[in-house]
Amino acid sequence: MLKSLLSLCTVLFITFIFVSHTSCTDEDCEAVVWYEDADSDGLGNPNVSRVACDQPSGFVADASDSNDTGLASTPLSAFDEFNPDAVTISFDGDEVTIVSNGQPNHTSPYWEDTHPLYIEQAFGDHTTPGFIREGSFTVTLPLYPELASSSSATGLGAIGISVHGPPIFNDEEGPNRPFDEPTATGLDYAGAHNGPSGYHYHLEAADVPENTTLSHDDEKLIGIMADGFLLYGRKELDGSYPTGLDESGGHFGTTPHSDGEEIYHYHIKNEFYIGSYVMLFGGDLQGTPNTIL
Ligand SMILES: [Zn+2]
Ligand SMILES: [Zn+2]
Asked: If you measure from the C-alpha of residue 52 to the centroid of ligand 1, how many angstroms do you get, rounded to a whole number?
């Protein structure tokens, strides 16, 4: 009895060795590297991988996801709003590069008077020198922008790119020189004027007959900020004013482009900055700023 048990064990042991040996050298199995796709966008995280013959659940063959954290993507349809005559948009993995020549697709007294979009200054008592000229603004932004642990103050120069092409500036007009009422009265109806780096917006556009495209007290897309978050007009898609905005005018909610998904986005704050002027963006950036060159 003992002898037969021993011989049975021997047979089982030999069978075990044989089966293990067979599975280890199965020539039909080609083990490959799989990358984790935590946000289920079909793109894998190059830093989290597994070697296996068969695709593990939650892993993909792609390794191009530089931000695999489950964050909402900036809705790609928002990029269709940009003026194609001025702005070139290109996508690469989880990033988008925006290049603009800074020239708007609307009328302005800041165009040279031979330009088809030139109009006389309809209001305001002076203008800054110079004409709208071709410039160059380039920024690469994440398609999955994240809120930063601390906000960042904006500086002089471009802090965003508008859908019309020109850059968005903040509430400063020079070093230690806040945007003031005399400066505001020199802006065109688009809320823009010329500066050393070219034509740029500070204010929400005015509600005048000349304004046929720019946002005024509505839900239109204004542009994209240097942290990758979209900036919208004062209202939501349903015509209401958003509530519970943070100090930069931002909140999580649906937008005209987000297809029902809640994404973080900014609004023009529904408040007068000086007089009856509404500032496009006077707060801090709540994400991580990227340099607009
Ligand atoms: Zn300015
Ligand atoms: Zn909103």
From this structure: 58
